[in-house]
UniProtKB/TrEMBL annotation, chain A:
Entry keywords, A to Z: Cell membrane, Membrane, Symport, Transmembrane, Transmembrane helix, Transport
Gene3D superfamilies, sorted: Sodium/glucose cotransporter
Family of the protein in this entry: Belongs to the sodium:solute symporter (SSF) (TC 2.A.21) family.
CDD domains, per the entry: SLC5sbd_u4 (cd11480)
Source species of the chain: Streptomyces ochraceiscleroticus
Name of the molecule in the record: Cation acetate symporter
Automatic annotation (TrEMBL), chain B:
InterPro entries cross-referenced by the UniProt entry: DUF485
Compositional bias (Low complexity): 25-38
Protein name according to UniProt: DUF485 domain-containing protein
Region Disordered: start-end pairs: 1-83
Organism taxonomic ancestry: Bacteria, Bacillati, Actinomycetota, Actinomycetes, Kitasatosporales
A UniProt-annotated Pfam family: DUF485
Chain ranges passing through the membrane: 109-131, 143-165
Origin species: Streptomyces ochraceiscleroticus
Alphabetic keyword roster: Membrane, Transmembrane, Transmembrane helix
Keyword Acetylation: no
C-alpha cells in the first residue's frame, strides 16, 4: 500500500502536471509583472509612495493584503501536512497563528498606525533618543525579516523539487535564485503599491484554492465532519489518539516544554513581525487599520479552519503513512490530496487540481517573499541608514530634512532590497536542508522576544527610557539567537545542521519560552537603572495622545 | 518646532488622513445620530472649561456620544502672545477629561479582553501538556475535549474581534476624532 502511494507521489511529477503547473505559474508571474509595471507607472519616488503605497488603500484591500502576507506556504502546505501526520498536535499552529491576531487588533494595529510612519522603529524612537533606538529596532527587524525570508525561500526550493520532479540540486538552486530575482524586481519597481496588489491577488487565489479543496473533501465524506474525523483517526493508524494531544509533543518533558515554547512564540510573535506592522501604514487612518485587521481575521480564521479540514482530509483520504512516505515533513500532503480528489493520478481532473494547487503554492511563496523584502528594505533605509547617516544631526528632532533626503532614502531602500534579496538567496542556498516550519517558528520567536516587548513598553509604559528600549531589543534578540545556536537544531543530534559537532547546551528547539521573558525583563531592568529624561512626561503625553486620537498622524 | 521629523508641514493635507471619516458611525445609525446632533451643539455653546470633570463621567446613557469636555490650554497661554509649544499642547490634551475618558474606555475594554484571551489560550496550551488524559476525553462522536477547545479558540477569537470593533466604533471613534481635530488645531496643523 505504501508502495503504490509513493508511486502515486512519483507520478505526480509526470510531464502533464509539470507543464500545466508551469503554465499556470507563468500566468501568475505575468499578471504580477503587469501589476508591477502599472503600479510603477505613477511613481513619484516619494517615501510615502514607496514604503506605504500612498496610504490610500481601503480596509478591504488591506485586509486581503494582510491575509496574503500572513498565509505563507508554510501554513498552506506545512500546517495541513503536520495535521495529516500528527493530528491534533498539528492543530496548535492553526490556533496560535489565529489567536495572535487578537493581540495585534487590541494593542498594536491602531496605535502603531497613529504613532509611526513606516516602520516599527518609528513608534519606539518617537519617545526616545533616536539614534540608538532606531539602530536597535532596525537590526532586530532586519534579523527577523531575513529569517522569515530564508524560511520561505527554502520552502520554494524544496517545493519545486517535490512538485516539478526536479529532485536535482540544479532545479532547486535555480528556483531559489529565480524567486529571489523576481521578488527584488517587484519591490524595486513597484514598491508598496505593487506588493500590496500582488498580496491581494495571491490571497484571492489561495482562498479560492483552499475553498475548492475543502468543499471536495467534505463532499467525499457526505458533508459530515464527524465521518471525516473518524475516517482520519482510522487511516492514521493511531485511532482515537490521533485526535488527542501528545503524538508529536507528548512523552518527555523536554518535548512538552517545546510545545509550550512554540505556543508562546506563535501567539506573541505576530505582533512583532515587521512586514505585518508595515501593512498598517498603507491605510489612511487608525480606524481603517482596525477594519483591515477585522477583515484579515475573518479571512485568516476561515483559512486556518480549512487547513484543519485539509489536514484531516489528507489523513483520511491518503492515509498518514502515504503522506509520510511522499515527504517526511508532510509538505506534499495537500498537493497529493488534490490529485486524489480530482480523480486520481491519471485523470484530467486530478492533473488540473494538482497543477492549480502547485501554482497557488508558488504564488504564495513569491508574494510573501516580496512583502518581507519590502519591509526589511524599509528597515535598512529608513532606520539604519537614516540613523547612521544623519543620526547625529537628527538626534532629538533637529530641523526638518529637505525633500532630497527622502528621495535619497528611497534610492537607498531600492539598493537595500537588492542586497537583502542577495543575502536571502545566499542563506537559502546554504540552508536548503533545514526544516521550513522550524525556521518560521524561529522567526516568530525572535520577533516576540526582540520586537514585541519594546513595542508594548513604548506604547503603554510612561516611565520607559532609551536605555530600556535598547536593552529590551538586544536582551530579547541575542538570547533568542544564542539559544538557537546551542539548541539540538544546530548540533548534537542526528537531524542537526552540524550532526558531527556537539555544542548543544539548550534542550529546546524553540527559544521563546526563555527569550521572550528575557526581552521583557531587560526592558524593565534598563528602564529602572536609568534616569528619566527631563522631558519624558511630555514625550509620553505626545505618544499617548497621538496613539489614541491619531492627532498628527502621518 | 522641536519635533519636526522630516516632512513639510503641509504634507498631511495631501495624505488626507481622515479620508474615511464620513463612514464613521455607519451601521449604527441610532448612536451616530445622537452624536452628530449633540456634539456641534455643545461646541457652539462654548467650551465648558470649569466643569470638565463632571463631563468626564458619562451618565446613564453611556452608549451615546462622546465625552463633551474639550481640552483647553492653560489660561496664561491664552493671554500670552505666541504659540504654545508642542509639549504644552500634548500635556494639556493628555490631562483633559475628554482624553482621559477615551483612554479609560479603551483600557476598560482591552485590558480585561487581553487578559481573558491570553489566559484562555495559555490554559489550552498548558492543558495539552499537563492533562492529556482530560483533553482526550470523548465528548460527542469523534470530538474530544481537545478538539472542542481548539474550535472554541476560533469561536472566541471571532467573537472578541466583533466585540472590540463594535466597542471602538460606538464608544471611542467619535470622541477620538474630535480630540484629533482639537489637538491639531492647537498645534497649528503642525505635525512632527
Amino acid at each position: 500500500m505504501t508502495g503504490s502511494l509513493s508511486a502515486l507521489a512519483a507520478s505526480a511529477a509526470t510531464d502533464d502536471h509539470q507543464i500545466l503547473t508551469l503554465v499556470l505559474f507563468s500566468v501568475f508571474v505575468a499578471a504580477t509583472l503587469a501589476v508591477t509595471a502599472w503600479a510603477g507607472r505613477r511613481r513619484h519616488g516619494s517615501a510615502e509612495e514607496f514604503y506605504a503605497g500612498g496610504r490610500l488603500f481601503s480596509p478591504l484591500e488591506n485586509g486581503f493584503a494582510i491575509a496574503g502576507d500572513y498565509m505563507s506556504a508554510a501554513s498552506f502546505l506545512g500546517i495541513s501536512g503536520l495535521i495529516a501526520l500528527f493530528g491534533y498536535d498539528g492543530l496548535l499552529y492553526s490556533v496560535g497563528f489565529l489567536v495572535a491576531w487578537l493581540l495585534v487588533l487590541f494593542l498594536v494595529a491602531e496605535l502603531v498606525r497613529n504613532c509611526g510612519r513606516f516602520t516599527l522603529a518609528d513608534v519606539v524612537a518617537a519617545r526616545m533618543r533616536r539614534r540608538p533606538v532606531r539602530i536597535a529596532a532596525g537590526v532586530s527587524s532586519v534579523t527577523v525579516s531575513v529569517l522569515y525570508l530564508v524560511a520561505q525561500m527554502v520552502g520554494a526550493g524544496s517545493l519545486v523539487a517535490l512538485l516539478l520532479g526536479g529532485t536535482g540540486q540544479a532545479a532547486r538552486t535555480w528556483t531559489v535564485v529565480g524567486v529571489g530575482a523576481l521578488m527584488v524586481f517587484y519591490v524595486i519597481c513597484g514598491g508598496m503599491r505593487a506588493t500590496t496588489w500582488i498580496q491581494i491577488i495571491k490571497a484571492v487565489l489561495l482562498m479560492g484554492g483552499a475553498i475548492a479543496l475543502t468543499v471536495l473533501v467534505l463532499l467525499r465524506f457526505h458533508a459530515d465532519p464527524g465521518t471525516l474525523l473518524t475516517a482520519a483517526a482510522q487511516r492514521s493508524g493511531h485511532g482515537a489518539d490521533f485526535l488527542a494531544p501528545g503524538l508529536k509533543y507528548g512523552g518527555s518533558w523536554t518535548a512538552r516544554l517545546d510545545f509550550l515554547s512554540l505556543g508562546l512564540a506563535l501567539v506573541l510573535g505576530t505582533a512583532g513581525l515587521p512586514h505585518i506592522l508595515s501593512r498598517f501604514y498603507t491605510v489612511p487612518t487608525a480606524r481603517a487599520a482596525r477594519r483591515s485587521v477585522v477583515w484579515s481575521i475573518g479571512l485568516i480564521g476561515g483559512f486556518y479552519l480549512m487547513t484543519i479540514v485539509l489536514g484531516f482530509g489528507a489523513a483520511a483520504v491518503l492515509g498518514t503513512d502515504a503522506v509520510r512516505a511522499a515527504n517526511p515533513a508532510g509538505n506534499t500532503a495537500v498537493p497529493l490530496l488534490a490529485l486524489d480528489l480530482g480523480g486520481g493520478p491519471d485523470s484530467t481532473g486530478g492533473t488540473i487540481l494538482f497543477a492549480v494547487v502547485a501554482a497557488v503554492a508558488f504564488a504564495t511563496i513569491l508574494a510573501v517573499v516580496a512583502g518581507i523584502t519590502l519591509a526589511s528594505s524599509a528597515s535598512v533605509a529608513h532606520d539604519l541608514y537614516g540613523a547612521l547617516r544623519r543620526g547625529g544631526r537628527a538626534e532629538r528632532g533637529a530641523a526638518s530634512p529637505e525633500r532630497g533626503a527622502a528621495s535619497r532614502e528611497v534610492a537607498v531602500a531600492r539598493i537595500a532590497a537588492a542586497c537583502v534579496g542577495a543575502v536571502a538567496i545566499g542563506l537559502a542556498l546554504l540552508a536548503q536542508d533545514l526544516n521550513v516550519a522550524f525556521l518560521v517558528g524561529l522567526a516568530f520567536a525572535v520577533a516576540a522576544s526582540a520586537n514585541l516587548p519594546v513595542l508594548l513598553y513604548a506604547l503603554f509604559w510612561r516611565r520607559f527610557t532609551t536605555r530600556g528600549a535598547v536593552w529590551s531589543v538586544y536582551g530579547g534578540l541575542l538570547p533568542a539567537l544564542v539559544l538557537v545556536v546551542l539548541s539540538p537544531i544546530v548540533s548534537g543530534s542526528s537531524a542537526a545542521i552540524f550532526p558531527g559537532l556537539d555544542f548543544q547546551l539548550f534542550p529546546l528547539e524553540n527559544p521563546g519560552l526563555v527569550s521572550i521573558p528575557l526581552g521583557f525583563l531587560f526592558g524593565w531592568l534598563g528602564t529602572v537603572t536609568s534616569a528619566e529624561a527631563p522631558d519624558a512626561a511630555a514625550r509620553h503625553a505626545e505618544t499617548e495622545v497621538r496613539a489614541l486620537t491619531g492627532a498628527g498622524a502621518a | 518646532m522641536e519635533k519636526h521629523d522630516g516632512r513639510p508641514a503641509g504634507a498631511v493635507r495631501l495624505d488626507a488622513p481622515w479620508y474615511d471619516t464620513p463612514a464613521s458611525g455607519r451601521g449604527d445609525q441610532g448612536a451616530a445620530g445622537q452624536e452628530d446632533g449633540g456634539v456641534p451643539a455643545q461646541r457652539a455653546a462654548g467650551r465648558p472649561d470649569a466643569d470638565d470633570t463632571e463631563h468626564g463621567t458619562v451618565g446613564a446613557a453611556a452608549e451615546d456620544g462622546p465625552d463633551l469636555s474639550w481640552p483647553t490650554l492653560p489660561a496664561q497661554r491664552a493671554d500670552a502672545p505666541g504659540e504654545p509649544t508642542h509639549a504644552d499642547v500634548y500635556l494639556t490634551v493628555q490631562r483633559s477629561a475628554a482624553f482621559q475618558e477615551v483612554r479609560r474606555r479603551y483600557r476598560s475594554f482591552v485590558v480585561p479582553a487581553t487578559a481573558l484571551f491570553l489566559t484562555w489560550y495559555l490554559a489550552y496550551v498548558i492543558a495539552a501538556v499537563t492533562a492529556p488524559g482530560l483533553m482526550a476525553r470523548q465528548v460527542m462522536g469523534p470530538l474530544n475535549v481537545a478538539m472542542l477547545a481548539g474550535l472554541g479558540q476560533f469561536v472566541t477569537t471571532f467573537v472578541l474581534t466583533w466585540a472590540y470593533a463594535r466597542h471602538a466604533r460606538l464608544r471611542r471613534d467619535r470622541a477620538a476624532l474630535d480630540l484629533r481635530w482639537e489637538t491639531q488645531e492647537m498645534t497649528g496643523g503642525n505635525i512632527r
